[in-house]
Model the fold of this input.
Amino acid sequence: MQKMVPIIFVVLLFSGLGGAIYYINQTEKSAKPESWSAFIYKNGYNSGRYDKKDGFDSYPNCKAYAQQQSAKLEGAAWECGLNCRFDSMRQGFHCETMENK
Done:
């Protein structure tokens, strides 16, 4: 019986570790749907002037809108950002990812 105690302890320890990792993974997943934002830079990326439109449900929809607006502005630079929020410390928008493909 005393030989089983360390084995049971190790099994319980690894089970607890596995459960903790699973719980952390579940809480890290985003429960909200993806939201893409289009940024159209009228005077180039470094100008700080841009038009922004939110609420796209996918990258292809955001890209189509951005390319259409870019064509109206004679090929203005554009990007689409995923889940963008205003960051007051940086005085600008911060996105999980930015794409222009």
Observations:
- The chain has a mean pLDDT of 86.
